[in-house]
Amino acid sequence: MIPSFVPPRFKNSKLWNFKQIEENLGKGFFSSCFEDEYEHLKGVIYIREKYRES
Q1: DSSP labels for 14-48?
Q2: Are 25 and 31 in contact (CB under 8 A)?
Q3: DSSP assignment, residue 11?
Q4: Residue in 18, 14, 8 with CA at minimum distance from that of residue 39
Q5: Largest CA distance in the chain
Q6: Residue 15 needs a FRET pair 20 to 30 A away by CA distance; which of 6, 25, 29, 47 works?
């Protein structure tokens, strides 16, 4: 089930977890822009989760 906060135009979209993303980097599933920003985004999420726990 897709969370209710997802806009209607994305209702039939796929939500990827980190493992799925990393397994598919460089295979043409993602835009070059996303692939360039992925490591930065992953770091931002890691920091947010780290401070959320404390």
Answers
A1: PPPPHHHHHHHTTTTSS-HHHHHHHHHHHHHHHHH
A2: no
A3: T
A4: 18
A5: 38
A6: 47
CB 45 within 8 A of CB 16: no
- pTM equals 0.61
Q: Token pair for residue 10? A: 């994305």
The chain-wide mean pLDDT, for the chain, equals 84
| Res. 1: pLDDT tops 70 | no
Handedness of CA 44, 46, 51, 53 (dihedral sign): positive
Question: How many Cβ atoms are within 10 Å of 16's Cβ, its own excluded?
Answer: 13
Please, which contacts does 41-47 make with residues 24 or more away whose CB atoms are closer than 8 Å? Answer: 42/18
- The pLDDT, as a whole number, for residue 49 is 86
